[in-house]
């Protein structure tokens, strides 16, 4: 591609509203432009990288036995009403009316469309399993679009849906697509983890998010420093065991702790460590009030509470509820003397606290020398806290560390959520009607582009991995008006294109400094500079990533390039 | 692809609401399904054909120097307000509000988006010309969606836009893209014509529509039976010359023609041919009333009137206007004694009428023995009528025939319509600010899929050309439960895939009749049937198009297939 024929509008300045590297660099290097908030045009360079990501996605999806189709963006409201999401999705689902005043949604996702399609066409177990995918534009009216392509309102997604006659078949396809996803992100060169995620209200047990590790990520990942284990922090079980201090139980005593409410205040006032304190929190779990105890240096993980009680909602009780139930304020709660009506659950760590401190259900008083086995009744011990850095990894290998992650993919065992709501049934081997069991699998294609840009850059600009780069080679004649340079550059451009390389040829009449700065910003892996030694047939080859520079005769060039590009 | 793993829901019955062959067959053969009126899902087979068409489009566009990008579907209203089309486009432009109540259009086309993009990024003649294209989903809320993909509300289009510093540059790119378009539709195997079209109010001189010839087309094309000439019938100039009959002028006479109004009535009552009658029609052209004369067997072409008077609107005068201006009814109008206030224009054919008939501007009376050079004053003779079958072709080669056409592509010299409205200017070589000159170029990608299906079918189903077929080979074991057949079929499936063919393998447990009927319906070019002679290694190869059947040993198969596929 001759640079004069395409549109690569580079910028010297960092755009004011671009907070993160990928957003800044994709704008500055002319890969994209914003149309309106959260809505972008992919300029030629951006389009090319997108297509390379799409090609990888297609290869891996096809390899996993998924079949491509293409569903519409305009989705009739009736489908969303059948699933119920017309009423629950909120303003992120963009809605409109057609000329006949019929309601439509702009596809934010395609569970409804695919379920209605498969419901209408597949009636027998003989046609299952079936895994269908598409690469398509999605619309979600984010409240606060940000970070460029990382959180936009119109974006490109690969979404896949699988339909099964039984759970084993779902498990099998889930595992295949899990592997395909790992391959896709590995081939994109990303530093990522497949993270155990919350399956929410969907009921499915298995769900993984594919997270690119990045400081700008919005989710915290707990991962093992030695194994593959990774989970959203809410999802990581705590397998730590706790050793009781080898000291004798002292006598339980109620002490005055005027105005000391928080763990910090109490522990400092009583001169004990937070680890010796027992934090008591009153939760409303569905309709029931439950007192939850964790060690003073730990935090209650409400997802674990929710799962323990198989509950719909878990919320902290309000001060009013607390007062009514316990006759004291939130900061004075404790398990001793809390009455028989209140169920108490405690985190395992509480059991190992010796001579600890807890609230006395009385304003300005705490118990000291608390020992759960001696002083508590009706307490169940469970895993209730958030995992922390330094905890043992739940898989038994290594120690937990935290990182932030950008979600680029998601695999999910949906179960029968949609097939039951929309009557997508089939006849099984015994002629019985069953709801299909479903899985769904998403990849943010445009978000992956941004995630790669976020991980592959340096102070000069983008640094594309060779297999995703918009071009593999960038030829720059230092002075295009110089007959010898221009003609050698053109000759190399033609011959390298014939050899199958994607070549960008900077044929613009610009100063060398501008061309080199643009080239660094764009980040094509190999630059070939044709300068003063063109008359001798000597050119300079520079590796964008390492900065390594070689002077080569044009006849040596093809072999060196081939070695470099195939080495990647 | 194993047929058991994909979704090809064939139908035996013709769907009730599908009027045309392509619509019926694409539904019956499982290439697509309707989601709602004018909105479709492309099932796996349909998606594959689309991708092949898209690949051809990309190759030819890239070859013509166009560069791909991707613009959004969600377009802010402000852009459409700048161009003015927010107010003029009508209900076909789908509109919506986002969560902040800001107005958006769903892209029906992208002149506004691309013009704003190029306006912001290109400032100098040095960056021109620039030709950008995308393959993208478009939305148009058609009043009456019909014929399946031929007139839908959500469809796939390739749209391109070019920007130029001068007219010569536009002409050059226009010609290149004209050639690219011809290549694209030729490679799709379509019987098409590049048709001279009406540039409407856009002011551009050159515009061509690429029309696939088809009885279900909505536009009438006048084409030469011997040359490449083709035009929308409104656009074809009439170059016919007319010979005056060699008979003496008789005396003008007013005759009583009670209740005879139409040309048919008058000519039959007076026992003259319609060719001897002169039809007089009063038009309101902008604000002016003009009497227009054509021969009785001809029709007035109002586009020609519009162009002749360089007018904004051309309408037949109402009976009231006619009465007021001419003091008679519409059916009695004529050029003799019509008064000096009314301008008269006549088609060239009128000049050659000898002793003709025309209205007398008096109810129930006509003039006979009318001769224009003797009896008319103030008449201008122009080309004013529609071309007819049998007329000489305007390019001087052959005779005009009519055909109906489906528009699949359009190339258009836009000029400065958008660049002026949206201030897309550049600095020319002399430092002067100029509006960019633009061209736009569209291809209906999903419509092309339907047009191919419309042209390539027979009574059994679709008959794909090899380069667009979803698969090239269809392997069918007659009885999949037969170990020998099944194993030979699998062996051929694997080896032919390795050889690079796209193979569909019917591994379903269905009766042979079902499998053969499905296969004919789907229309893959070559079918390989593995049946009773599998034990000997003998299979049957059938060419879908010709019905030709060959029995071959499996070892001969690759060579015969290669010959057939490469022969296409």
Automatic annotation (TrEMBL), chains A, B:
As for what it does, the entry says: Catalyzes the attachment of proline to tRNA(Pro) in a two-step reaction: proline is first activated by ATP to form Pro-AMP and then transferred to the acceptor end of tRNA(Pro). As ProRS can inadvertently accommodate and process non-cognate amino acids such as alanine and cysteine, to avoid such errors it has two additional distinct editing activities against alanine. One activity is designated as 'pretransfer' editing and involves the tRNA(Pro)-independent hydrolysis of activated Ala-AMP.
Entry domain remark: Consists of three domains: the N-terminal catalytic domain, the editing domain and the C-terminal anticodon-binding domain.
GO biological process entries: prolyl-tRNA aminoacylation
CDD domains listed in its UniProt record:
ProRS-INS (cd04334), ProRS_anticodon_short (cd00861), ProRS_core_prok (cd00779)
Q: Please name the PROSITE patterns in this protein's record.
A: AA_TRNA_LIGASE_II
- Family stated for the protein in its record: Belongs to the class-II aminoacyl-tRNA synthetase family. ProS type 1 subfamily.
Protein's UniProt name: Proline--tRNA ligase
Compartments reported by the entry:
Cytoplasm
Top EC category: ligase
Among Gene3D superfamilies, the record links this protein to: Anticodon-binding domain, Bira Bifunctional Protein, Domain 2
Q: Which is a Pfam family this sequence falls into? A: tRNA-synt_2b
Q: Where is the Aminoacyl-transfer RNA synthetases class-II family profile domain?
A: 38-465
Domain of life the protein comes from: Bacteria
Q: Which GO terms describe its cellular component?
A: cytosol
The GO terms this record gives for MF are: aminoacyl-tRNA deacylase activity; ATP binding; catalytic activity, acting on a protein; proline-tRNA ligase activity; transferase activity
The UniProt keyword set, sorted, is:
Aminoacyl-tRNA synthetase, ATP-binding, Cytoplasm, Ligase, Nucleotide-binding, Protein biosynthesis
Give the reactions, separated by semicolons, that this protein catalyses. Answer: tRNA(Pro) + L-proline + ATP = L-prolyl-tRNA(Pro) + AMP + diphosphate
Q: Does the keyword Ligase apply?
A: yes
């Amino acid at each position: 591609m001759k640079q004069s024929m395409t549109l690569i509008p580079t910028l010297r300045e960092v755009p004011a509203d671009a907070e993160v590297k990928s957003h800044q660099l994709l704008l500055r290097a002319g890969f994209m432009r914003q149309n309106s908030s959260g809505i972008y045009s992919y300029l030629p360079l951006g389009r090319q990288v997108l297509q390379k990501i799409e090609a990888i996605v297609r290869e891996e999806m096809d390899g996993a036995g998924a079949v491509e189709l293409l569903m519409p963006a305009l989705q009739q409201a009736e489908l969303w009403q059948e699933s119920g999401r017309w009423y629950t999705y909120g303003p992120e689902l963009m809605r409109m009316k057609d000329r006949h005043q019929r309601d439509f949604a702009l596809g934010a996702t395609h569970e409804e469309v695919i379920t209605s399609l498969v419901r209408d066409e597949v009636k027998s177990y003989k046609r299952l399993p079936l895994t269908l995918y598409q690469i398509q534009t999605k619309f979600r009216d984010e409240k606060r679009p940000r970070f460029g392509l990382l959180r936009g309102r119109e974006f490109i997604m690969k979404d896949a849906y699988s339909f099964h006659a039984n759970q084993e078949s779902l498990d099998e396809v889930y595992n295949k697509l899990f592997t395909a996803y790992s391959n896709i992100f590995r081939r994109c060169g990303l530093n990522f983890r497949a993270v155990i995620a919350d399956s929410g209200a969907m009921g499915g047990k298995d769900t993984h998010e594919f997270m690119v590790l990045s400081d700008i990520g919005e989710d915290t990942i707990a991962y093992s420093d030695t194994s593959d284990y990774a989970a959203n922090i809410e999802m990581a079980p705590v397998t730590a065991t706790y050793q009781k201090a080898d000291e004798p139980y002292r006598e339980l005593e109620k002490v005055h702790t005027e105005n000391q409410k928080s763990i910090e205040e109490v522990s400092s006032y009583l001169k004990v460590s937070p680890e010796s304190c027992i934090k008591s929190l009153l939760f409303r779990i569905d309709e029931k009030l439950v007192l939850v105890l964790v060690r003073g240096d730990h935090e209650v993980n409400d997802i674990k509470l929710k799962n323990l009680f198989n509950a719909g909602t878990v919320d902290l009780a309000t001060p009013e509820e607390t007062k009514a139930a316990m006759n004291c304020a939130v900061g004075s709660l404790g398990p001793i003397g809390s009455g028989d009506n209140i169920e108490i659950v405690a985190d395992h760590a509480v059991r190992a606290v010796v001579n600890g401190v807890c609230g006395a259900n009385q304003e300005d008083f705490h118990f000291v020398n608390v020992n759960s086995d001696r002083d508590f009744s009706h307490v169940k011990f469970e895993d209730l806290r958030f995992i922390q850095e330094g905890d043992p990894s739940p898989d038994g290998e290594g120690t937990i560390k935290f990182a932030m992650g950008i979600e680029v993919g998601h695999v999910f065992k949906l179960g029968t959520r949609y097939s039951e709501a929309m009557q997508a049934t089939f006849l099984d081997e015994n002629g019985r009607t069953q709801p299909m069991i479903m899985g769904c699998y998403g990849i943010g294609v445009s978000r992956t582009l941004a995630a790669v840009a976020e991980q592959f850059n340096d102070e000069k600009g983008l640094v594309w991995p060779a297999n995703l780069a918009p071009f593999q080679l960038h030829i720059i004649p230092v002075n295009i008006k110089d007959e010898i340079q221009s003609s050698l550059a053109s000759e190399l451009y033609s011959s390298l294109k014939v050899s199958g390389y994607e070549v960008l040829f900077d044929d613009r009449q610009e100063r060398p400094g501008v061309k080199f700065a643009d080239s660094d910003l764009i980040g094509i892996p190999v630059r070939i500079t044709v300068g003063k030694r063109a008359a001798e047939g000597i050119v300079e080859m520079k590796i964008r990533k390492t900065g390594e520079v070689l002077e080569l005769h044009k006849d040596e060039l093809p072999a060196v390039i081939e070695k470099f590009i195939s080495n990647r």
